[in-house]
Amino acid sequence: MRSFLFGHSGLRVSEICLGTMTFGTEWGWGSDYEASKAVFDAYAEAGGYFIDTANRYTEGTSEKYVGEFVRSDRDHFVLATKYSLFDRQGDLNFSGNHRKNLMRSVEGSLRRLGTDFIDLLWVHAWDFTTGVEEVMRGLDDLVRSGKVLYIGISDTPAWIVAQANTLAQLRGWTAFAGLQVEYSLVERTPERELLPMARAFDLAVTPWSPLGAGILTGKYLDPAESDGRLTGQSSKMNERNMRIARTVVDVASELGASPAQVAINWTRQGRAQVCIPIVGARTPQQMKDSLGCLKVQLPEKALQQLNEASTVALGFPHEFLQREGVQQVMYGGAAGQLIRHR
To answer: Same domain, yes or no, for 118 and 170?
Structure first.
């Protein structure tokens, strides 16, 4: 497994990130300790060392398991966790982006992880109540204290991330180095604003759910496997996404790869920036299958086939600005003479 620089920072991370939301059985569908350890070992033995968890995952069990698994070689692993989501129902000071919850949540994560510092702390989601200045100053204080080394942001509109990093740069505070978003063949809307923004600010992108909640493995194409979910129990179980899944299965068959490997590699190839997909599993067999993507290269024809099957409208102003007439008046008919480096 290769390593990438994490955005504009000097942090080194492996090219596949291990997602650990399945570590723990508290939510009724995860893995027990032994199965979680087997998944972790399969990932680590393949050369992976970038681990993603969160304070909320399986009521804190995920962080506890991860902390135990990395303890014998803590400094080798890049340990990422998150704050923002609640740790206590009915108490507003146990959730949100504000400084009080930030400091409280990080202390709790440090205890569960059994470590003195967090390599990468994500803002888990934007709460639309805490000011950008409060969030960025609080995060910078944690970095200056040594409890956090780098910061990133997840599930937040592009304009807020842009405002936050611009403010941090002007104030001399720590800026976000990474962006975590849902991104897959069945969820390409981040291409409208979030991915171009990440490119402009040199943010590493770590897509979650690269398999589209399992749809892109092709397992729901069999009506017997769908268990009725195609009828509307899940917003992703629709005819469009089933067509995309069929294309993934067809491409995988042509390449002699698994559908999971094709879907994961689509997020890794063809983008102008580094994408480090977050891959989770409930069994070591699932993890080994997903990691097989490292031995697969999607040819241009396959990428084009997948792109055409999953295309989304970029909308205004992107499509407007690409119109021939608009390009004419913007560049006076000389756009072809301009050699662009960005």
So the answer is: yes
